[in-house]
Amino acid sequence: MKYFIILITMIFCHIVDDYYLQGWLASAKQKSWWKKNAPDDLYKHDYLMALFMHSFSWTFMMMLAPTLYVIIFGGHYYPLVFVLNVIIHMITDNMKANKKKINLIQDQIIHLAQIVVTFLVFFWK
After folding, report:
1. Do 3 and 125 meet the contact criterion of CB atoms below 8 Å apart?
2. Could you give the number of structural domains in the chain?
3. Residues 17, 57: contact at Cβ < 8 Å?
4. pLDDT tens digits for 40-64?
5. Which pLDDT score, from 0 to 100, does residue 125 have?
6. Which residues constitute the domain of residue 86?
7. What pTM, to 2 d.p., does this model score?
């Protein structure tokens, strides 16, 4: 039961961060927002920082439950999993927000797959 609770907590944290906490980053991770609101060449790559910040925040939130479990009850922590989740989230959101190669459903399936794989890395025995 505890593992089920950890998994649904990870999914809940995903929902909170991907839908409620993004705020301005939801716009700022789109190249088109920068072209419209800050057209100077100085800012043309700033969307990448917004993508990174959102991806870092999402990964932190999504990995919070397994991280706390490892801290409290012991086990192995995998920093590479954190880094890979940031990178995958960044690429996925860029494919949706800027390249328009995937839709919201595909985006969310990828993020849910990230959650399941992360869960399995921490708890598969």
Report:
1. no
2. 1
3. yes
4. 999 999 999 999 999 999 999 999 9
5. 75
6. 2-123
7. 0.93
